C-alpha cells in the first residue's frame, strides 16, 4: 500500500464542521488572490504534500509517524468531543466526560498554528539563522549534520522537530485551571469562519513566581464549528478576555471575531455558508469581488 503524502495542517475532522452537508460544498476565500471558490470535499483543503515528512538518520523518509501521533492524540476523538460539548450546552452538566473533552480540544487548539506550513517555515528559518554562525566555525562533521538537517527538498520541507504531545501537555500544565467561554450566534444566519491557522493563542505573563519577564500561552480561541466558538483562558489571568459561561452573541460580535481571524489568517478562510462569506468580505472591504 502507498503511504499518503498529502498531510493536513487543519484536521479534516475539524474542517468538516464548516462543510455545508446540504449542498455538499465548503466555501473559501483567498485573501492574497482576492478569490472566492468552493470545494466538494475536504481532502485538499488546508493541506500540503509532505507537510509532516521527516528525514531519518539513514537518509530514508518517514511519512507516517507524525501523522499517526496527531491522529491518535488530537484528531481521532475530535468528533466525539464536539458531540460532548454540544450535549454540555444542552444539559449544563460539567461532568468528568465533558472536562476531558474540553482538555482534549484545548490541546488541539494549542498545537493548531504550529502545524501550519507558514509557522513551520518561520521556525526553521529562525533556527537555521541562529545556528549559522556557530556552524561556520564547526567541524566538517558538524557542518555536514547542519546541511543534512536543513537540506529541505520536495520530500522533506521542514525539520518537523517539535513534539506536539509534549508541547500541549506542558502548556496546559503551565496555564493551570482553564476557564471556558462558549459563544453561539443569536442569529441563525450568522456563521463562524475557519481561518488557515486553525486556532488562536495569546501569550501573557501568568507565572510571575518563576520568570516574571516571560510571556506564556494564556488564551486559546478555537472556532469549533460554524455555530460554536470556544475560548479557553488561564485562571491566572487578571483580566479575562471573555466572561465564562455560555453566551449567545450578536451579529456584530461575530463579525468582529471573524474579522480578527481573517486579519491574522495567512491566506485562506473557510465558511459553511456562501452568502455569509461573500457579505462578510464585502462588509469590511467593498472593493473585494463577489463570487
Could you characterize the architecture of this molecule?
Helices cover 39% and strands 21% of the residues. By secondary structure, the chain is of the alpha+beta class. The strands form four sheets. Strands 9-10-11-7-12 form a five-stranded mixed beta sheet. Strands 3-2-13-8 form a four-stranded antiparallel beta sheet, with helices on one face. Strand 5 and strand 6 form a beta hairpin. It starts with 5 loop residues before the first strand and ends in a 7-residue tail after the last helix.
Q: Work out the radius of gyration.
A: 20 Å
- Broad shape: globular
Calculate the terminal CA-CA distance, rounded to whole Å.
40 Å
Portion in helices: 25-40%
Strand content: 15-25%
Integer average pLDDT: 92
Which regions have little confidence, pLDDT < 50, spanning 5+ residues?
Answer: none
Number of E-state strands: 13
Structural class: alpha+beta
- Report the biggest beta sheet as strand number plus sense, adding barrel if it closes: 5 strands, mixed
- With helices defined by DSSP (H or I, 4 residues minimum), what is the helix count? 9
Major beta sheet, strand line-up = 9-10-11-7-12
The SSE order reads EHEEEEEHHHHHHEEEEEEHEH
Amino acid at each position: 500500500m502507498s503511504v499518503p503524502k498529502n498531510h493536513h495542517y487543519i484536521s479534516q475532522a475539524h474542517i468538516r464542521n464548516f462543510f455545508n452537508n446540504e449542498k455538499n460544498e465548503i466555501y473559501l476565500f483567498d485573501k492574497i488572490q482576492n478569490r472566492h471558490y468552493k470545494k466538494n470535499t475536504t481532502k485538499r483543503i488546508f493541506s500540503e504534500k509532505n507537510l509532516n515528512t521527516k528525514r531519518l538518520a539513514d537518509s530514508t523518509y518517514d511519512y507516517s509517524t507524525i501523522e499517526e501521533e496527531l491522529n491518535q492524540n488530537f484528531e481521532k476523538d475530535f468528533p466525539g468531543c464536539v458531540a460532548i460539548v454540544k450535549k454540555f450546552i444542552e444539559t449544563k452538566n460539567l461532568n468528568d466526560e465533558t472536562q476531558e473533552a474540553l482538555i482534549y480540544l484545548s490541546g488541539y487548539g494549542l498545537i493548531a498554528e504550529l502545524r501550519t506550513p507558514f509557522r513551520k517555515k518561520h521556525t526553521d528559518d529562525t533556527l537555521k539563522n541562529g545556528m549559522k554562525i556557530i556552524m561556520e566555525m564547526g567541524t566538517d562533521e558538524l557542518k555536514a549534520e547542519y546541511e543534512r538537517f536543513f537540506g529541505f527538498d520536495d520530500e522533506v520541507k521542514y525539520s518537523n522537530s517539535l513534539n506536539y504531545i509534549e508541547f500541549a501537555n506542558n502548556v496546559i500544565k503551565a496555564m493551570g485551571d482553564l476557564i471556558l467561554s462558549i459563544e453561539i450566534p443569536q442569529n441563525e444566519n450568522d456563521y463562524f469562519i475557519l481561518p488557515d491557522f486553525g486556532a488562536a493563542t495569546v501569550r501573557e505573563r501568568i507565572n510571575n513566581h518563576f520568570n516574571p519577564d516571560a510571556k506564556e500561552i494564556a488564551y486559546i480561541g478555537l472556532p469549533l464549528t460554524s455555530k460554536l466558538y470556544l475560548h479557553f483562558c488561564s485562571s491566572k489571568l487578571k483580566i479575562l478576555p471573555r466572561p465564562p459561561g455560555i453566551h449567545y452573541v450578536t451579529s456584530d460580535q461575530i463579525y468582529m471575531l471573524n474579522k480578527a481571524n481573517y486579519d491574522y489568517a495567512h491566506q485562506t478562510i473557510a465558511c459553511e455558508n456562501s452568502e455569509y462569506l461573500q457579505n462578510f468580505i464585502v462588509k469590511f472591504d467593498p472593493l473585494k469581488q463577489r463570487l
